[in-house]
Design a protein that fits this description.
The chain is an alpha+beta fold and 418 residues long. The protein has a domain at 78-97 and 320-418: 2-Layer Sandwich (TolA/TonB C-terminal domain), CATH 3.30.2420.10. The protein has helices spanning 2-33, 39-66, 94-97, 99-128, 135-147, 179-184, 187-203, 205-218, 223-248, 250-261, 279-287, 296-313, 345-350, 380-390; strands at 155-159, 166-168, 174-178, 272-273, 332-334, 354-362, 368-375, 394-396, 398-400, 403-405, 407-415. The chain has a four-stranded mixed β-sheet with strand order 1-3-2-4, with helices on both faces. A three-stranded antiparallel β-sheet has the order 7-6-11. A two-stranded antiparallel sheet has the order 5-8. The longest helix has 32 residues, at 2-33.
Length: 418
């Protein structure tokens, strides 16, 4: 069962390459269409697109796990055709033939990023437990929170090792205020920065930001996830700016951001900082509001990346063994000709499962001339049964310069029990 899960998970991770590219392409078109609308519209679109990046592979994996695989001791082929939960014999690229390596690399990087995220949460929790340090500013932020319509108690904590206010927490929100700003910034400008943070608290942005980090951790390998997450953060900061400007004035907030821009600061992704999201653009936007123009230069990398990913996923020709010359058109199996192999009795009794990677030598007449096990399932009876059964399949031979040629075709066979 573990081999089955690894195979399905590896295939799901590979499928998300084209799925994420498609989501990014649709979201990019939508962001362009909404460029003159309020930031709330673009924020909602980017959030929905990022959620789709999580929901699609999850639904895909569940469909694979619940698809009928084996009944009455027969075997099914591991790779799906298209997006449905179908099992079919298809040529394999190296990643498809080695799902274990794909899953191991993904799990290792995911664990490393998860540890980084947990370290950030620990740092925030430790800072939130520190003493307030300034009762006057605590009273002021409590009064401001009341004017924002925030019923929860907003705690204020003074921290030494940051240079910009950050917000964390949902049920018990806390604003971390840099000690350097408390002593070095005029009170009216510092109040404007705190108004921006209260905008995040009012909208419960911390929850969305935390979910972003989870999705980034799970799907770190896809550029579309990072692009959508960046769009969310940019629009989120603009929305918080608009809320703060309603209470303290746009010019006052712009002056506060300008003062902040002069200082060196660090950015904590797990918290919501006033310095996030194109600081100079935000200042200009507050002082001279105008519809967002169409920036084709910024869109070109995204469109180019999307086209490259889709084109790469569209390549279905197998990578042949090093000793074989590749054909212009690879051999294709005739599915109806493949008999259903029977589970070896001993393997059924022992409930053995696994994936067999095979290389088939397909002749110019479409018959299998030779076969060999490239990667064993770990059980010799399963390897031999798969090799003998698939060798009986008929193929449409590979074509080169308009004539049929002999070629090697890599395939994989999944033995599993239902």
């Amino acid at each position: 069962m573990m081999a089955t899960l690894i195979g399905h998970l590896g295939a799901t991770l590979l499928d998300f390459i084209w799925q994420g590219a498609l989501i990014a392409c649709v979201a990019g078109i939508g962001m362009v269409a909404l460029r003159k609308r309020r930031p709330q519209a673009r924020y909602a679109l980017a959030c929905l697109a990022l959620l789709a990046c999580l929901a699609w592979p999850v639904a895909d994996l569940l469909a694979r796990l619940h698809a009928p695989a084996l009944v009455d001791g027969t075997a099914g082929l591991a790779l799906r055709a298209g997006t449905g939960a179908l099992y079919a014999l298809v040529p394999l690229h190296w990643p498809q033939a080695h799902p274990g390596a794909i899953v191991l690399a993904w799990a290792s990087c995911t664990c490393a990023m998860a540890l980084r995220m947990l370290a950030g949460l620990w740092w925030i929790a430790r800072a939130a437990r520190s003493p307030c340090g300034d009762a006057a500013w605590q009273a002021r932020i409590t009064s401001m929170a009341g004017r924002f319509g925030i019923r929860r108690t907003v705690r204020l904590r003074v921290v030494d090792d940051i240079a910009s206010p950050v917000t964390a927490g949902w049920l018990r929100p806390v604003v971390l205020l840099p000690a350097s700003l408390l002593t070095g910034m005029p009170p009216e400008l510092l109040e404007a920065l705190l108004a921006h943070e209260l905008g995040h608290v009012k909208r419960a942005d911390y929850v969305v930001n935390l979910l972003q980090n989870v999705i980034e951790t799970l799907l770190f390998y896809h550029p579309a996830v990072w692009w959508l997450s960046r769009c969310i953060r940019i629009e989120r900061e603009r929305i918080a700016d608009d809320l703060a400007a309603q209470h303290v004035g746009a010019h006052r907030l712009a002056r506060a951001l300008s003062e902040l821009e002069k200082r060196q600061f660090s950015h904590h992704d797990l918290a919501l900082a006033a310095n996030g999201g194109e600081l100079m653009f935000r200042i200009t936007r507050l002082l001279r509001p105008a519809p967002q123009g169409l920036n084709w230069k910024a869109a070109l990398p995204v469109l180019g990346l999307t086209a490259a990913l889709i084109a790469g996923c569209a390549q279905v020709a197998p990578a042949p063994p090093a000793s074989v010359t590749s054909a212009a058109t690879p051999a294709v199996v005739q599915f109806a000709s493949c008999p259903a192999p029977v589970y070896p009795d001993q393997s059924l009794r022992d409930r053995d499962t696994g994936t067999v990677a095979l290389d088939l030598l397909v002749g110019a007449d479409g018959t299998v001339r030779d076969s060999r096990v490239n990667r064993s399932s770990g059980h010799l009876p399963l390897d031999e049964a798969a090799r003998l059964a698939i060798a009986k399949c008929s193929f449409k031979p590979a074509m080169e310069n308009g004539r049929a040629v002999q070629s090697w075709v890599p395939v994989a066979y999944l033995w599993t029990l239902q």
